Amino acid sequence: MSPDELVYLGILAASIPAGFLFRYLSPPVKQGAALLLGLSITIATCHIHTLHSLVTVIGTWIIIKSSWRHAPALSLSWTFVYLLFFRLVTWFGLPPPTPFANAVQLLLTLKMVSLANEVNSFHTEKKKEVSSFAKSPVIGGLSEEPSFYDILSYSYCYVGIMTGPFFRFQTFVDWLTQPSPLALPGWVPCLQRLKLVPVYGALFLAFNSLFPLAYVRTDEFLDENFFFRLFYMVAVFFVFRMRFYAAWCGAEAGCISAGLGCYPEKALSKPGGGPTVNYSPDPTAEEKYDFKTIQNIDCYNTDFCVKVRHGMRYWNMTVQWWLHHYIYPNAPFKAYTLRAGWTMFISAYWHGLHAGYYLSFLTIPLCIAAESAMEASVRAKLGPRGQNIFDWVHWFLKMRAYDYMCMGFVLLRASDTINYWMSIYFTMHIVAVCCIIVGRVLKGGKREGRRGERREGEKMENVTEKTGEKTD
């Protein structure tokens, strides 16, 4: 493991016992302590680059105070333009940010855009209440506009400050004001989330040593036979998954120990968004709680869901909620595939400026179009047994598609990514294009293909205004 990874591991490990201590604090003390600890971690790891995050926070606060009506669009523009500056600071003679500063900046960007939208919704619903004399039905909305101190404490809250998960400002407020935090579940769900982390960590270390990424960039790798080169992307993606499974499960455990994102099961919480229905505690019954609000990874479904589009749903789940709530609905296109492409482009930009991100993310819409075409033209005509076989083949190709796209994500440079894809003859691109062509031919041309795409688009459009969660 690299020194940076050891620092990340240390921060994650320390956050879990710290979380249990925070349950004993009163709301004001908890808020101040979470801010102090998070800011200390940021300064210790980011040094002078902490100023980047502070400028982002102050800029967002000014936008919210100046024009809450336009705050969602302005905050998105502000944070994304600053991300560009942040990544190009060396052009201006400034020192390059540390990886820790980059991690803080990424999470902070999500938080600031979400905060601006929450404040906008608060004022909008408040105006409706005044005009209609009726209480707003908004679920999980703010009860007051946050102060600068509130925004600062939310931005630098130690929980998930570098690793995530993303959570809304309202989730942060609910955490501060929990009436009986010591009575909420803690040890059992925390240990449940941690039980496989040693396994993920061991598999990561073992396979990372057996299949180093650097080997892909060597001339010796190109001398290997085709099937070895093809298999190598499977191993690389396995290493990639084990690394993030361990990190995100550990990050979720840090949230669970602190009680962040703990809501009654009847609130029907969604990752990132929180409760989706109004709820009230029942003093006559024993309440059941969950931590779905801060769930960032579903390891089983990531590996074993059938479709490419569903694979995204179970990976980095809180960020997926953010994308589908704030980016996808505002895409400048109507067609589902184009809107998905736009969302993936924004996601690639958020991750960084490396060409590999864009090559990988923009391959996803092609894969989605391919699976939609085959589902409409082939699967729909099969019986139960045939559909079961189709789904197994679909799952196998889905995993290979993610293996293939992962190479761009980890190789980063366009030349390295294209050289690897070329070494396996752009296999998955060709498979995807062939599936689209076969689907169009079997389905009878563009009319039916567009109809299938429109049906998928309607599923994606079935987004609640309050949660942004897709429903099937």
TrEMBL record:
Keywords: Acyltransferase, Endoplasmic reticulum, Membrane, Transferase, Transmembrane, Transmembrane helix
The protein's name: Leukocyte receptor cluster member 4
UniProt similarity note: Belongs to the membrane-bound acyltransferase family.
Listed GO MF terms: lysophospholipid acyltransferase activity
TM region(s), chain numbering: 6-25, 37-64, 76-94, 196-214, 226-244, 356-374, 420-442
Region (Disordered): 448-472
InterPro entries on file: LPLAT_7/PORCN-like, MBOAT_fam
Listed GO biological process terms: lipid modification; phosphatidylinositol biosynthetic process
Pathway: Lipid metabolism; phospholipid metabolism; Phospholipid metabolism
Catalytic activity: a 1-acyl-sn-glycero-3-phospho-(1D-myo-inositol) + (5Z,8Z,11Z,14Z)-eicosatetraenoyl-CoA = a 1-acyl-2-(5Z,8Z,11Z,14Z-eicosatetraenoyl)-sn-glycero-3-phospho-(1D-myo-inositol) + CoA; a 1-acyl-sn-glycero-3-phospho-(1D-myo-inositol) + an acyl-CoA = a 1,2-diacyl-sn-glycero-3-phospho-(1D-myo-inositol) + CoA; (5Z,8Z,11Z,14Z)-eicosatetraenoyl-CoA + 1-hexadecanoyl-sn-glycero-3-phosphocholine = 1-hexadecanoyl-2-(5Z,8Z,11Z,14Z-eicosatetraenoyl)-sn-glycero-3-phosphocholine + CoA; 1-octadecanoyl-sn-glycero-3-phospho-(1D-myo-inositol) + (5Z,8Z,11Z,14Z)-eicosatetraenoyl-CoA = 1-octadecanoyl-2-(5Z,8Z,11Z,14Z-eicosatetraenoyl)-sn-glycero-3-phospho-(1D-myo-inositol) + CoA
Cellular compartments per GO CC: endoplasmic reticulum membrane; mitochondria-associated endoplasmic reticulum membrane contact site
Keyword Transmembrane: yes
Protein localization: Endoplasmic reticulum membrane
Primary localization: endoplasmic reticulum
Top-rank lineage group of the source organism: Eukaryota
Membrane topology: Multi-pass membrane protein
